[in-house]
Target: Twin-arginine translocation pathway signal protein
Amino acid sequence: MTDTSNTLPDLSRRNLLKVGVMGSAFLATAGVTATLSGCSASKPGTGMQALRDTDLPMLSAVIPAILAGAVAPEKMPAAIKGTLSSIDASLAHLSPELLKMTLQLFDLLSMGITRGPLTGIWGSWQKSSTEDVNAFLLRWQNSSLAMLNMGYGSLVQLVQMSWYGRKESWAHCGYPGPPTV
Model:
């Protein structure tokens, strides 16, 4: 009879350090490669203050997954456009260091070399399904790696704050709007 019980892998301190070093080396190599090859644009996109053209496909795929249930399907295209505008305005007012860190997260999610292994989305964001994006978000939310948990939290909070700060979102949650003075 074979043992079918679930056993945890032998995770010693040495193995944990090896995984950490290899992961750090992978991410550093990807970042340096993107910077040297010009994949990571540093200029804002057309009509944007902070968001780059390379950030838009990823955010346009993630926003509907995060706002599902809060926005009617027929209003989603306008909600995506408005949320992108609010995200851009929010990022334009961040400190340079926080903006840099946020754009690094966007680079990590946008570059093919890191997007596939970290998100499970191997093709472009435009071709990803809602189920693929939901699986990515769930994977990061429940990850045992704190860095992925923080990335998930940052991404979700940024989208939600940008959406719920917009007037068109208030009716859904019963907020009458700020008092008039």
Q: What stands out?
A: The two ends are 77 Å apart (CA to CA). Residues 13-37 form the longest helix (25 residues). Residues 50-169 form one domain.
